[in-house]
Amino acid sequence: MTNFNVALLQILPTGSQEANLIKGLEYCKKAKQMGADIALFPEMWNIGYALTPDREETERNAVGLDSDYIARFQELAIELNIAVGITFLEKYDPSPRNSLAVIDRHGKIVLLYAKLHTCIFDAEERWLTAGDDFYVVDLNTENGTVKIGSMICYDREQPESARILMLKGAEIILVPNACPMEINRLTQLRARAYENMVGIATVNYPYGQPDCNGHSSAFDGIAYKSESSSSSDMMIVDAGEAEGIYMAGFPIDELREYRKREIHGNAYRRPDKYHLILSKEKAEPFIREVFEAQKQCNDNRIQFYIEKEPSQNTIKQFVSVIRAYAGEHFTDNFADDVAIDAPYQRLCYLVNNDELISGLMFTCLDGYPHITAMATKREYQGRGHGKKLINHFVNYVSQLGFHDIELYAWSEKTRPICASTQAFYKSAGFVIEQEYMGLWARDMITVKMKKSW
């Protein structure tokens, strides 16, 4: 793959979502005419980063992955045979997310990333749901495949963001942005590219957008050319302030050869000496006021995990949660069955201070991810943790290329207590596909439920 061409759409929003959609589609067409492999939008394009402290208004402006907004870009990607990095305020539970969806040239969402380092120091962003992880995926283009990841705006000010993406294999990092890009922030991006030997493409709003000044940029990550004895300027794009499309051509083959021979990235790191980086303790001068909005939401203490080979401790905790519902939502021996099956399936779960509070076990059945067990601790019910776990699970399987998940549950017709179970799954987007008599037990009705996106 000789070049990977990223079109940086440094464009002004229009003031309405519908007009932003139309303008965005037109600029994707222009990007294709210029030879782009992907068109990348600045941060939260669907609303032009017009966040306000009014939570209800922001909730109304959020769009889902299944919205017409996303579908129109998917259709255009297929029509133009181009990838699109579309940014949007994503409808999400318990509150919207600041997200990027990378749609490949076949119209498939191959990467969904939500801003992990939200600006909790700003009234507009402090209550948005933060992302949980950084992801790296293969993006297929007409000229070959490139490994891409993303960080959004304030993410780039934490060096760990780009470092994790590099460790996960990223070659190019896409960075939607909405803030003044002055010399210090540009220097940050140069440093991230240099120390990780990755290409970085950043797109900002142009001058005319509040608190923005253009200066979208790209750094190819190659500080030392093989044919030169001196260092090279890695900056391949400095857009200036004006509205327009700025093309960043990353020499992928050259970058790959460079990464094989140079000393940066993961070549000579000493992770065994970096334990302090994982410490959660803070001391002056870095102690900050905890916002009231954060005090009301304990999500900051709750972490999401996936284990492909569940540990005995995780299995024990999960089985304990299941057993608490024996004879009610589950049969008396279901917890024992889960204990037997868990080592051969996968577990994803939420943890609060090392305590498993909600979990689901899954496998693959008939070509779909299939949830075989799910439960939330009684004392944590009614707080949205189950839905949050489902959302994390959907995001995870989406990265693997799936767009459907299935499960079986008792019907409320023969086990009335399970009416709440079905209501929960329906609220999370599942629909009943079929009913079975005697699938698990004689004279008992089981329902097959499915969620698609």
Overview of this structure, please?
- This protein is an alpha+beta fold.
- The chain has two domains: 268 residues, Carbon-nitrogen hydrolase (Nitrilase/N-carbamoyl-D-aminoacid amidohydrolase); 156 residues, 3-Layer(aba) Sandwich (Aminopeptidase).
- The chain has eleven helices and 19 strands.
- A seven-stranded mixed sheet has the order 13-14-15-16-17-19-18, sandwiched between helices. The chain has a six-stranded mixed sheet with strand order 5-4-3-2-1-12. The chain has a six-stranded mixed sheet with strand order 6-7-8-9-10-11, with helices on one face.
- Helix 4 runs parallel beside helix 5.
- The longest helix is centred in the N-terminal third of the chain and has 17 residues.
- The relative contact order is 0.09.
- About 2% of the residues have low confidence.
List descriptors:
453 residues; alpha+beta; Nitrilase/N-carbamoyl-D-aminoacid amidohydrolase; Aminopeptidase; 2 domains; six-stranded mixed sheet; 27% strand
Topology:
Blueprint lengths: L3 E7 L6 H17 L4 E3 L14 H7 L6 H13 L2 E8 L6 E7 L5 E6 L21 E6 L2 E7 L8 H9 L4 E5 L6 H14 L2 E5 L13 E3 L15 E4 L5 E7 L1 H10 L30 H4 L6 E6 L4 H12 L10 H8 L4 E7 L2 E11 L2 E9 L8 H15 L4 E7 L8 H9 L3 E7 L7 E8 L1
Parallel strand pairs: 1-2, 2-3, 7-8, 8-9, 16-17
Antiparallel strand pairs: 1-12, 3-4, 4-5, 6-7, 9-10, 10-11, 13-14, 14-15, 15-16, 17-19, 18-19
Helix pairs in contact: 1-3, 4-5, 8-9
